[in-house]
Amino acid sequence: MRKILAAALAAGVAAGPAAADDFWSGAKAKIGGGQSAPTGSNRDAYEAAERAASEAWERLPFSTRRAMFVTRKAALYGDYDARGSNVFAPGEPLVS
C-alpha cells in the first residue's frame, strides 16, 4: 500500500503544478481551448459578489421557526429539555 501511495505521489510531483490561477503573481490559468480566464480586478469581482450576497440576504424572510426556554445548555445539536413554563423567579437564569 505504501508503495502505491509513494508512486502516486511521485507521479503527481513529476506532472508539475495543476493549471490554476497563480495567487502570488496574479497570472491567470488557461481555460479549455487555450482561452485565457476573464481579466479584470479581483477586488471588483469580490465586491460585486459581496453586494449580490448582501442584497439576497436582505430579501430573505429569516425568522425563528420555534423558540423555547430550556432547562439547561445543550451538549449536542438537538439535546435539550424544554422548560414547562415561561415564568421565571427573580434572578433565575434564562436559557434559550
Please sum up the structure shown.
With 96 residues, the chain is mainly alpha-helical.
Q: Can you put this structure into words, describing what you see?
A:
Keywords: Signal. Residues 1-20 form the signal peptide. The chain starts with a helix and ends in a 37-residue tail after the last helix. It has 2 helices and 2 strands. Strand 1 and strand 2 (35-36) form a beta hairpin. 0% of the residues are buried. The chain is 33% helix and 4% strand. It has a two-stranded antiparallel sheet. With 96 residues, it is mostly helical. The radius of gyration is 27 Å and the shape is flat. The mean pLDDT is 74.
Distance between the termini: 51 Å
Percentage of residues in DSSP E strands = under 5%
Please give the share of residues in helix.
25-40%
**Main sheet properties:** 2 strands, antiparallel
Question: What's the total helix number?
Answer: 2
Query: What do the pLDDT scores average to?
Result: 74
Give the class from helix and strand content and strand pairing: mainly alpha
Keywords: Signal
List its salient traits:
mainly alpha, 33% helix, signal, two-stranded antiparallel ribbon, flat, 96 residues
